[in-house]
Amino acid sequence: MLNTIVALATPPVKGALAIIRISGDKSIDIINSIFSRKVEKNHYAYYGYIINSDGEKVDEVITTLFKGPHSFTGEDVVEISCHGSMLIANEIIELILSKGAVLAGRGEFSSRAFYNGRIDLVQAESINELINAESKEAKKLQLYSLTGETSKLLTPLQTTLADILSLIEVNIDYPEYEDIEVETNEKLLTKIDPLIDEINYLINNGESSKLVIDGISVALVGRPNVGKSSLLNALIKQDKAIVTNIPGTTRDVVEGKIRLNGLTLNLLDTAGIRDASNEVEKIGIEKSRKSIEQADLVILVLEANKFTDEDQELMDLTKDKKRIIVYNKKELINKEDYKEGQVYISALNKDTKELETAISKLFNLSELEDLTPALVSSREIGLLLKVKENLIEAKKEAQDGISLDLISMSLKAAYDTTKEILGQEITVDLEQEIFSRFCLGK
Q: Are 299 and 355 in contact (CB under 8 A)?
């Protein structure tokens, strides 16, 4: 039998109210041993007092009962809403501990919900991500997962794989039955290709949707004094980076963050890259090179009226990166000198509209308004890639004329991996790693 657990479910800071959550077989007995009224009716809120062992009132509270299995954890759950003093909350928790409960670990309420079949692993992971969501779009994606919409994406895939595996098994075990469909390598190939297409869609949708949650790392790159720091300040709408006419002013990577049509851009203003003799500047330039390597997007800043050998070196350095080339200081040239397809800005005058439009087009940000359920965590996408590998292997085996019983091993591996995504096949180590990221009380 699992211990009855208790934890503070609200932040451990002073506020108007605090909520204390208890879950386990002893929850009802414990609350009735410290509460001024008898708690027994499911989904019912009781007003009364928490009473300590000396018969003294600890606090005036509202207590709510959620009987298992129809509770979040699948166990009997009691929630106590008390005044938001940490002195009061801690005193109530200590009282509950004295009655036989133990402190809950990180994510233990959610892990019990998972193991009691109340939620699958995709839903469980979404709880933590929903708490950490920094945008409406990220929240929307995680709500899809929390409500089970995302998990349903795997149902057609699992059903088809199960049907194929069942047919192969029947063909092998009962070859004498003439009224059963005969599976062949040729027929199998016509079934595997649509599955690979479906997996590719799930992977691509997941990776693009993952950008909504994680944002993208954007390196502002250019030679010294080209206007990178002015561009950073213009984009974040504050004077964060120091701007002077002296080349090499930026000696370290300066960071800023903006929201652009639902996508978070983590901006890195890098030191101007050039041959430098100053040791401090050299360190900044080396950091700039590392930022370029790690960035999801490089914005290469050039001057609209000047192109140098250093600019060409940067063009070559960033040619293999996802890149937008912008021409700064457009106020120094005439409009008739603009070249079609090039992005012109004036960081000095805070005119960055063309750059923002280019970023939106590059990442299809208009599609963020039509977000659909997606498997977005690194774990989920990694397992989808594993399913794809299994299906590609099965396809190759079918093309090579391998026997169906051997092909079924690759198909079974794909099927088992879809179960792993939902947590239907999960190791204890993985479970501990996932739920250890949660906050206490969840």
A: yes
- Cα gap 98→80, rounded to integer Å: 16
Task: Please check whether residue 137 is in contact with residue 366, taking contact to mean a CB–CB distance below 8 angstroms.
Answer: no
Q: Which residues contact 84 (CB under 8 A, 6 or more apart)?
A: 10, 14, 15, 16, 17, 18
Q: The whole model's pTM is what? A: 0.77
- Structure tokens belonging to residue 182: 């005969």
The ranges assigned to domains in the chain are 5-115, 226-300+309-370
Q: How many helices (H) and strands (E) would you count in the chain?
A: 14, 12
Q: What whole-number distance in Å separates Cα of residue 75 and Cα of residue 272?
A: 59
- Per residue of the chain (442 residues), give pLDDT as tens: 789 999 999 999 999 999 999 999 999 999 999 999 999 999 999 999 999 999 999 999 999 999 999 999 999 999 999 999 999 999 999 999 999 999 999 899 999 999 999 999 999 999 989 988 888 888 999 999 999 999 999 999 999 999 898 888 877 766 655 556 777 889 899 999 999 999 999 999 998 888 888 888 888 888 888 888 888 888 887 654 434 443 444 434 456 778 887 788 888 876 554 444 445 445 555 666 777 878 889 999 999 888 898 889 888 888 888 999 999 999 988 888 888 889 999 988 999 999 999 988 888 776 666 789 999 999 999 999 999 999 999 999 999 999 988 999 999 999 999 999 999 875 555 556 556 666 766 6
The letter for the amino acid at 364 is N
CATH H-level superfamily of 5-115: Probable tRNA modification gtpase trme; domain 1 (3.30.1360.120)
Superfamily, domain 226-300+309-370: P-loop containing nucleotide triphosphate hydrolases (3.40.50.300)
Count of C-beta atoms within a 10 Å radius of residue 57: 12
AA identity, residue 301:
V
